[in-house]
């Protein structure tokens, strides 16, 4: 029991991080139907940003947290405004290739600013680990899960209760019809990139105290976040949460009971399995189309 609980606690912590990354993918897809493969680099910028602003003792944690999120969100703003908005051929494959190029560019910028060495910061809280039936539960894990739940609930309410959220969804469903209805579709897309990049920064911030942060950390985290989004159902916020937690727990149990060498492969094995059994994901909705 003690061993299983320890693996579950570890899996839930990692899964919550994958979930908030997946939320960024789903949130942008839900608003623009675009998959941004530079999203992992927003996570990297968030992690290294908090390392510099708080780990370097430049600012207190709340101020560093807010400033990092706003700064990375502004990078997302610039990506949409400078790289994507100027494209005359706006086919999805062209936009996806641009996001891949942006990923490589941001990774290079990260290497120039922070170097190739990995960076670490202490935990956000100095509370002692809690003992749960012999297993150790870190306060940082509880904080991570609470932040992820706040992000998911906040976005859910934003989409359901605000006109702006509903307008963003309308643009994703039919951009031309939304524009004819008076919705500024360009501004909605810009806002979606801004929010998605900010969510990626939050993921980077909460992961910084429990792992080493480097310029290349976004590659694998971005892929696992995408796997979590596909597992739960791309475009579903709650599906992203479920997919992230399932992926994290699967990884933890696989490492504990099978082999640690399979840790990174488990995400892709789960993705292949869910695509074969249910391509829309666990909570995804199958679309009916007339051909």
Kindly list the characteristics that best describe this protein:
291 residues, mainly alpha, ABC transporter involved in vitamin B12 uptake, BtuC, two-stranded antiparallel sheet, 11 helices
Strand order of the largest sheet: 1-2
State mean pLDDT (0 to 100 scale): 85
What's the total count of β strands?
A: 2
| End-to-end distance | 53 Å
For the record, the CATH architecture stands as Orthogonal Bundle
Number of domains: 1
CATH class: Mainly Alpha
Largest β sheet strand count, sense and barrel closure: 2 strands, antiparallel
Q: Total helix count?
A: 11
Strand composition percent: under 5%
Brief write-up:
The chain has 11 helices and 2 strands. The protein has helices at 2-32, 39-55, 61-84, 92-114, 139-161, 163-173, 175-180, 185-207, 217-232, 237-257, 263-277, and strands at residues 130-132, 135-137.
What can you see in these coordinates?
The protein has helices at 2-32, 39-55, 61-84, 92-114, 139-161, 163-173, 175-180, 185-207, 217-232, 237-257, 263-277; strands spanning 130-132, 135-137. Helix 1 (2-32) packs antiparallel against helix 8 (185-207). The chain is built from eleven helices and two strands; from the N terminus they run ααααββααααααα. A hairpin with a 2-residue loop joins strand 1 (130-132) and strand 2 (135-137). The protein has one domain: ABC transporter involved in vitamin B12 uptake, BtuC. The termini are far apart. 72% of the residues lie in helices and 2% in strands. A two-stranded antiparallel sheet has the order 1-2.
């Amino acid at each position: 029991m003690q061993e299983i609980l320890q693996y579950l606690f570890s899996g839930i912590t990692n899964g919550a991080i994958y979930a908030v990354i997946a939320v960024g993918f789903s949130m942008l897809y839900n608003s623009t139907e675009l998959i941004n493969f530079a999203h992992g680099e927003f996570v990297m910028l968030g992690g290294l940003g908090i390392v510099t602003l708080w780990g370097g003792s430049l600012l207190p944690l709340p101020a560093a947290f807010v400033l990092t999120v706003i700064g990375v969100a502004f990078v997302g703003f610039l990506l949409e405004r400078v790289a994507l908005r100027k494209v005359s051929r706006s086919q999805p494959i062209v936009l996806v290739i641009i996001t891949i190029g942006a990923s490589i560019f941001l990774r290079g910028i990260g290497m120039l600013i922070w170097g190739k060495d990995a960076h670490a910061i202490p935990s956000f809280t100095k509370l002692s680990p809690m003992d749960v039936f012999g297993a150790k539960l870190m306060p940082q894990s509880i904080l991570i899960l609470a932040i992820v739940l706040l992000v998911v609930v906040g976005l859910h309410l934003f989409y359901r209760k605000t006109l702006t959220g509903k307008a963003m969804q309308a643009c994703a469903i039919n951009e031309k019809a939304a524009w004819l209805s008076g919705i500024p579709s360009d501004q909605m897309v810009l806002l979606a990139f801004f929010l998605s990049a900010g969510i990626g920064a939050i993921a980077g911030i909460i992961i910084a105290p429990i792992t080493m942060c480097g310029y290349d950390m976004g590659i694998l985290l971005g892929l696992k976040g995408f796997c979590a989004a596909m597992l739960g159902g791309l475009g579903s916020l709650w599906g992203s949460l479920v997919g992230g937690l399932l992926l994290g727990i699967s990884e933890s149990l696989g490492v504990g009971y099978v082999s640690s060498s399979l840790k990174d492969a488990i995400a892709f094995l789960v993705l292949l399995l869910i695509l074969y059994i249910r391509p829309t994901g666990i909570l995804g909705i199958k679309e009916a189309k007339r051909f």
